[in-house]
Amino acid sequence: MPELPDVEMTRCDLKRWLVGAIVTAADTEDARLSRPESPRAFAHALVGRSFEHVERRGKWLRLDLDDGGKVFSHLGMTGGWVRVAVGAAVVRFERARIDVALHGRAFSVRYVDARRFGRLLAVREDLADWNALGPDPFADGIDIGRFSQALAKGRRAVKEIIMDQRVFAGIGNILATEGLWTARIDPRSSGNALLLPTDARAIARGLRRAIARELADRKRYTDGRADSFFVYGRAGQPCPRCSTRLSSVVLGGRTTVFCRGCQVRRRPRASQSDA
Questions:
Q1: Which residues have CB under 8 Å from 103's CB, separation 6+?
Q2: Secondary structure (3-state) at 152
C-alpha cells in the first residue's frame, strides 16, 4: 500500500507534469473512483482549467485549479499516476485520463489502480477526510509535546497510535514497523506506559529516518525495485542489529515484524487512567 514516501514522489511527478498545464480532455468511467460525484462531473470540472498547485497531506493529494476547484487523489492500495502520449492505448488498470497541454507540448496523465480502492474527486471545497488529518511528519515536522499527549491518552499499542491518521498523516505499516525498530521500542507497548517524552523523541527520530530512507530508495530505484527494509516483511530472519530471530504479531489488523531481543516492551501501569 502506498505510504508517505510513495505519495510524496507522486506529488513531485504531478507537480512537474501538471502545474501550469491546461486540461484539454478528461475522462473516467469508474463511478466507484469518483463517488459521490459522477464521472461526467469530473470531466466537466477539469476541461479548460489549468493546474496551479499540487499539495500532499499524508496519503492524500490535492491539485488546485485556476478557478478555485480542487482535485483530490488517494492512491488506495494499488493506485498510481503515469505519463504517456495523448494517443497512447489504454494503460493496464487505467481508471482515469487527463490530457493536457504544457509549454506547447501535449501529453496524457493516467490514473491506474488494480484493486480500485483509490479515490479521485473534483470538488469545490476541501474534503472532510483531508481536514481530519493530523500533522504530516515530513511536511510539518513532529511536535514532541503534541505527540507525547497522544501517546499518554490510552492503552492502545504504540504502533496503532502512530498509524492513526489523526496523530500522523501518512504513517502506514511499513514506516511504523521500521521506525519502532530504529527506536528500539516494541510495537506492542502501550502508549500510556512509554517513558515520555524520551520515548516520543526516540520514535520521532525513528520515523524521520524511515521516511528519509524510503524517499531515498524511491529516488534511487525508479524501476520498482524492492526496498531493502531492516525488518518489515522479514519475520523469521535474524535481526540486523542483535541477530535475534525476528517475530511477527497482528496489531490493528496489520502484520507487524519486530525483535524480541532489542525492542523493549513497556507495559501499562495499573494505577494509570485511560482518560
A1: 20
A2: helix
Rounded distance, CA 273 to CA 106, Å?
A: 61
pLDDT tens digits, residue range 35-78? 877 888 899 999 999 999 999 999 999 999 999 999 999 999 99
Q: What residues have CB less than 8 Å from 248, skipping those under 6 apart? A: 235, 255, 256, 257, 258
Residues acting as catalytic residues: 2-3, 59, 254
- Residue among 206, 112, 113, 211 at smallest CA distance from 158: 206
| Cis amide leading into 36 (omega within 30) | yes
Task: Tell me the domains of the chain and their CATH numbers.
Answer: 4-131 (3.20.190.10), 144-258 (1.10.8.50)
Q: Is the pTM of this model over 0.85?
A: yes
